[in-house]
Design a protein that fits this description.
This protein has 5 helices and no strands. With 173 residues, it is mainly alpha-helical.
Length: 173
């Protein structure tokens, strides 16, 4: 067993102190983050985004009480024009065909997107904080380095082709 001052030679072991240091010391903009950590940053961010969508939609579908939301989010509380609480309506396959069931589903989808977009800055902050140490860890594996190289080559080729397709600016005057 390692003492807290000893370092392991295992390349897959994560040192929590170095994770915190790299996240705190690097104040990166989003373009810098994408340039340096491209594929890993995108995969992490979209994984968090899709997880947020899934969790929020599931909570809304499970009938989570939204009446206790802060005032600035009160528009998300699902009530019908008659005051009926629609958050507890459970849709079955046979209900999907009805217009009101479709409206409830679309309302849940809209509320899901609204909630997920409200927490967008938190997702971006999480991406900026976690991507550098995650990338340093992931790049220890040949498969990850190979995937990044493949995507990098594809992006370079796409830029080259796109550059040839775009009209050149004229300086004739």
């Amino acid at each position: 067993m390692l003492k807290s001052t000893e370092k392991s030679n295992d390349p897959t072991e994560i040192d929590p102190d170095s994770l915190l240091d790299s996240a705190v010391q690097k104040h990166m903009t989003i373009p810098e983050l994408l340039r340096e950590y491209g594929l890993i940053a995108l995969l992490f961010h979209f994984t968090v985004w899709s997880s947020c969508l899934t969790i929020v939609f599931s909570l809304l579908s499970a009938g989570v009480d939204l009446s206790h939301l802060p005032a600035f989010l009160s528009f998300l509380s699902p009530t019908s024009s008659s005051g009926e609480d629609l958050s507890t309506v459970v849709l079955s396959n046979s209900d999907i065909a009805s217009t009101s069931a479709k409206a409830i589903l679309m309302g849940r989808l809209g509320a899901t997107i609204a909630i997920v977009e409200v927490v967008g800055p938190l997702r971006i902050a999480l991406t900026v904080a976690v991507t550098p140490p995650l990338s340093n860890f992931a790049r220890k594996f040949a498969m990850v380095r190979s995937a990044e190289a493949t995507v990098g080559n594809w992006v370079a080729e796409t830029k080259k082709v796109a550059g040839n397709l775009l009209p050149t600016s004229r300086t004739d005057e």
